[in-house]
Amino acid sequence: MTLVSVVLPVYQGAPWIRGALDCLAAQTHRPLEILVVDDASSDGTPAVVEDWRARHPDLSVRLIVRPENGGPGVARNDALALARGAYVAFLDADDRCVPWRLARQLARLEAEPGLGSVGAWYDMVDADGTPVAARRLSVTAGEMAWAALIHPPFLLSTLMTRRALCRPGIFAPRHQGEDAPAQRRLLWQAPAAMIEEVLVTYRTDPHRPQDPRMGVAMAEDLAPLTGPLSAAEAWALHDALLAFPNRVTPAAIAAVSGLFTLLGVFRGLRPAWMTRPEYNRLFEGYLDLAAPFLAAHGESLLAPPSPQAPRVAPWMGPWEAEWRAGEARSDRPRPKEIFPPVGGDSPSKLSG
User: Fold this and answer.
1) 223 vs 117, 182, 186, 259, 261, CA distance in Å?
2) Which residues contact 47 (CB under 8 A, 6 or more apart)?
3) Is domain 4-203 annotated with CATH 3.40.605.10?
């Protein structure tokens, strides 16, 4: 039988991790290798894992305790360096999966040797288990690009070959957005397939403000695909969001270059007052309108980036500081210069 390694990074996960381990114990596939990496938790997580391991002597469970917190990317890299399985899956401490998840995905991978990974549909729930979203991706180039660029949990619902993860340190050593580059590299390595069945439940907090570092990380990651984003363009998008909250049109998006950098920056750098429901809906509307672009350009978006690609960090730092401080600038372009109102346009689905 084929050995599957499951990587489970955890930080302050004592209330949750037993449930994740129970899901792995219930998997119909054997043999399994479970690698738990505790990222310097102070809530007794290692003791919970040790107790669970003692109660399941039939399972191979390795516990790696990091002396200092390095973030989920570092924890996953540590586990991958020790993994022995021909296939690798990820599961976070507060996420869950059905008992047949690994068996179903492994069967697909072994039936189609050319594949590098097999994803699955997943549901998103809040801390109480209440559904908040559902991801139903297909296997078109545009959909897979969408998953790699926009939906971080894509990687957590995927079983992949070791060869697709062969690059050392595939996860970025940072606390925010560490999985986005790994998702793209995974799709660059080999074709992917999707099982159109919910196999994973991903837990999230829909009310938690996005860490500003996420936008910086996404903008840097996407710079090779879109080119650098100018400060003027970034401020133009910000002003447009405020000026036209009910008029989100494809023409408005097309007017600003670096589409995906813009989307990533807006998602990550919005200040606290921009986390109200209407702004969340507005952001989702921009993502929805980007779908046709993804469908048309999915293949090119999955192409490996050029090593000479420009970076956006030099201007992102000052811009992030202004967002966080709530400062206003009088010299940035006004929305009417970038997004002129179009007479007769139908209001977007976000209106009202």
Assistant:
1) 25, 15, 18, 10, 7
2) none
3) no
